[in-house]
Inverse folding.
């Protein structure tokens, strides 16, 4: 007989895997600054009060949980119902991985469901537009060259690897030290990594001012639309879903920065999310930007309307929806999974904070798809490590064939590639050398 797990049991089982021993940006956006205290009273497992803990302890010996009003009871186990299942409770779409996502069987392939060529071309195009604009500030053209998909993919790989080493609050330059993880110095110089971190852009900066008249999230609107589509196309939720809010930590200037006193990080950008309660796959999200300008993205932001927009894809499918369940939430667990190996770093650019959030969520979703497709029980930290290595591989190969870098460094590169099962003679003539002249 199959076992029904409570939300808490599912959360404990998944987070158990996370208990492993862990191995300047000076630009600000030209936006007004505003902090709004959220009226949404969210109390989660990550920030419960002592009173909440007492209620929770008192209920553990019974067959139910108390809600935060200390009166409403939630059964720990599904209620046995005799007879036929009602029509509105019959799931009409099978849950799990769907479409082309079923063919993704490696960490690299599952992550590329979201960071695909379409998205990477947008990042490369807009980053190069910005690089062109600031190139005049550099004495040497070689210090501000255009990027490409191979290089930017490797950059994202290093961000993921920095999350594996939980370096969000460390001086990231230490990862390039002699005694640091070799993958960082072999992939690119610290100088190039910092340059890309400062220059990466998600929209055309030359037309942003015009778009901001009607689109408040103009700096990231295009990639928001892409991620919304890609998250939905890859997965169908099971019978239980959860809606709650996440907070992207951010304390810089932002016209829609929020203050949520019940969150571990109290200042940031609020995101409403729909999550599969069993697997914690993030299905849909909506970034709260306050009152929108007149235009295509102006929406009513009442709780009812936000929920209606988030559940649009599962309406009429027989799914169950839970909101604000204080004792445990699939959203809280998804939030915790993102923060455990967070790629984000302190920045004054809110678009970059949002982009880092998308990397974190995509990595979590990719892990869920990978486990579903392969049935492997790989730890998430190992999954992320293998993913980061795969994303950096093409750039390391190209660098190993670049005669303009130190011979000693090229030798280290080929020693590293040898440990990855790659033979120099097999690939020397296949590597793209179009950027050999760039000092990396």
């Amino acid at each position: 007989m199959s076992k029904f797990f409570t939300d808490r049991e599912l959360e404990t089982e998944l987070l158990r895997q996370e208990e492993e021993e862990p191995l300047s940006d000076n630009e600000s956006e030209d936006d007004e600054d505003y902090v709004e205290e959220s009226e949404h009273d969210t109390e989660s497992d990550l920030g419960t009060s002592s009173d909440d803990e007492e209620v929770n302890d008192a209920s553990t010996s019974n067959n139910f949980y108390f809600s935060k009003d200390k009166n409403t009871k939630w059964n720990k186990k599904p209620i046995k119902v005799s007879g036929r299942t009602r029509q509105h409770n019959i799931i009409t779409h099978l849950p799990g991985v769907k479409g082309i996502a079923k063919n993704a069987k490696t960490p690299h392939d599952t992550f590329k469901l979201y960071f695909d060529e379409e998205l990477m071309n947008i990042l490369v195009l807009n980053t190069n537009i910005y690089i062109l604009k600031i190139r005049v500030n550099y004495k040497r053209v070689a210090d501000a060259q255009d990027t490409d998909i191979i290089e930017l993919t490797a950059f994202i790989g290093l961000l993921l690897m920095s999350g594996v080493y939980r370096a969000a609050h460390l001086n990231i330059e230490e990862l390039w030290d002699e005694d640091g993880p070799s993958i960082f110095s072999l992939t690119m110089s610290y100088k190039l990594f910092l340059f890309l971190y400062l220059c990466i852009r998600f929209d055309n900066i030359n037309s942003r001012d015009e778009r901001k008249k009607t689109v408040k999230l103009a700096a990231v609107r295009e990639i928001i639309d892409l991620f919304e589509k890609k998250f939905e196309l890859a997965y169908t939720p099971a019978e239980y879903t959860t809606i709650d809010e996440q907070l992207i930590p951010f304390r810089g200037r932002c016209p829609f920065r929020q203050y949520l006193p019940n969150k571990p990080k109290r200042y940031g950008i609020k995101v409403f999310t729909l999550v599969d309660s069993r697997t914690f796959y993030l299905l849909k999200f909506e970034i709260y930007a306050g009152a929108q300008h007149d235009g295509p993205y102006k929406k009513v932001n009442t709780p009812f309307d936000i929920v209606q927009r988030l559940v649009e894809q599962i309406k009429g499918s027989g799914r169950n929806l839970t909101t604000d369940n204080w004792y445990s939430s699939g959203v809280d667990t998804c939030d915790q999974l993102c923060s455990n190996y967070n790629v984000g770093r302190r920045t004054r650019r809110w678009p970059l904070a949002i982009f880092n959030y998308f990397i974190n969520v995509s990595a979590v979703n990719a892990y869920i798809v990978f486990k579903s497709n392969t049935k492997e029980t790989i730890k998430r930290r190992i999954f992320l490590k293998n993913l980061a290595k795969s994303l950096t591989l093409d750039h390391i190969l190209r660098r190993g064939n670049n005669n303009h870098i130190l011979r000693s460094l090229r030798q280290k590169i080929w020693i590293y590639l040898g440990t990855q099962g790659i033979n120099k003679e097999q690939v020397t003539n296949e590597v793209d050398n179009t950027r050999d002249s760039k000092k990396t």
User: Anything to note?
Assistant: The two ends are 58 Å apart (CA to CA).
